[in-house]
Amino acid sequence: MIINKTKKIIFLIIGLVLSISIIASAATLDQWGPNWYTPYDALVSVQSDMIYADFMEWNSSQISQYHPHYCWELEFRPTGGNNPDDYWDGVDDFLTNLPAGYYEYEEGQGSDDNDITIGSHSVENASSSIDYYGFLYLNEKSSTPSGIVIESELGDDLGLIFDGLPLRYEYFKTNAQQGVYYSW
Questions:
Q1: 165-176 and 28-30 strand pairing
Q2: What is the pLDDT of residues 96-112, one digit of tens each?
Q3: The 101-105 sheet, strands edge to edge
Q4: Could you give phi then psi for residue 28, rounded to 5 degrees?
């Protein structure tokens, strides 16, 4: 009797893991718009000691399309398969006014450690009359990335997990340069 229950639990766990894997791999790459999930206005940059995102604005139509399980992420990824740890040595400070704002910077060389993220778990609680910002202060190393991918991503955190499963994403820049401010 206990063996049958254990088997059922194992099969449920395997099914859940497979379902999450399928969802995660099914993210849709959109052509740059910006699309509805991306702020319609922003100024972004990668500096030697910080990730900069300011003047981010969503309009009320965009905000109304978010539901409570959605999260939004602005990702910065060194090009050439390099890792942020090649250029920075962890986080010094984080400032944001994004609703349920967060950052991701995983130290290490794992498969999900290839970007630095500023995000929000509650864009549905944003206001169209507020300019949002996120400043992630980093401990710099002496080297500089040759290029940086800047990406906007819509995810679903399923109400359970911190790092949402990607649903849609779009590239703003595929070879941004450190020290340059970009706006859309």
A1: parallel
A2: 999 999 999 977 656 55
A3: 28-30, 165-176, 148-156, 70-78, 116-120, 101-105
A4: -100, 125
> Is the previous residue joined to 34 through a cis bond, with omega within 30 degrees of 0?
yes
Q: How far apart are CA 40 and CA 17, in angstroms?
A: 35
**105/83 Cα distance (integer angstroms):** 11
Q: What is the pLDDT of residue 159?
A: 81
Which CA distances in Å does 8 have to 14, 30, 143, 151, 171? Answer: 10, 39, 51, 40, 42
Is the full-model pTM beyond 0.70?
A: yes
Going by C-beta distance under 8 Å and a sequence separation of 6 or more, which residues neighbour residue 129? none
Decide: 151 and 170 in contact? Cβ < 8 Å.
yes
Cα–Cα nearest to 66, from 151, 160, 162, 167: 167
pLDDT tens per residue, range 128-180:
999 999 999 999 987 889 999 999 999 998 887 677 899 999 999 999 999 99
CA 1 → CA 6, 8, 9, 10, 15, distances in Å? 9, 11, 13, 14, 21
Closest CA to 118 of 148, 76, 179, 149: 76
